[in-house]
TrEMBL record:
<dbReference type="InterPro" id="IPR011006">
    <property type="entry name" value="CheY-like_superfamily"/>
</dbReference>
<keyword id="KW-0597">Phosphoprotein</keyword>
<protein>
    <submittedName>
        <fullName>Response regulator</fullName>
    </submittedName>
</protein>
<dbReference type="InterPro" id="IPR001789">
    <property type="entry name" value="Sig_transdc_resp-reg_receiver"/>
</dbReference>
<dbReference type="Pfam" id="PF00072">
    <property type="entry name" value="Response_reg"/>
</dbReference>
<feature type="domain" description="Response regulatory">
    <location>
        <begin position="4"/>
        <end position="120"/>
    </location>
</feature>
<feature type="modified residue" description="4-aspartylphosphate">
    <location>
        <position position="53"/>
    </location>
</feature>
Amino acid sequence: MSKRILMVEDNTDNRQIVRDLIAGTGYELIEAHDGAAGVAAAAVHKPDLILMDIQLPVMDGYEAARRIKADPALRHIPIIAVTSYALSGDEAKASAAGCDGYVAKPFSPRQLLAKIAEFIG
C-alpha cells in the first residue's frame, strides 16, 4: 500500500507543482483547498503526512495544524508547513502550532522530496 500525503493548499498553481512532483514517487496524493477541508480530509483519509500551507481561506494553516494535533486519532501524523511565510520567527510559529517540519516557498523539488522522505521514507 502506497503512503498517502494530504496537501492542504489553496493556490491552483502550487497544487499543480506538488501534484507533478509527487506523480513520479509512488505516493498517493489527496488534496484540500482550505484549512477546514484539510482538517476534515485528515480525519477521513488518515494520511501518512500532511503538507500544510499557512495562508489559507476559511481556517489558516496554524489553526488547522492545531486542530489536527489536538485529535488523538490524528496527532501522530507529521505536518510539514509549506509556506511563503519565511520571515524570522515564522518557522517557530509553525512549530508552536504543531507542524513537525517547515519548507519555505519557493522550494526546490529536491528540497521538498527530501523533507517528505525524512518523515515517511
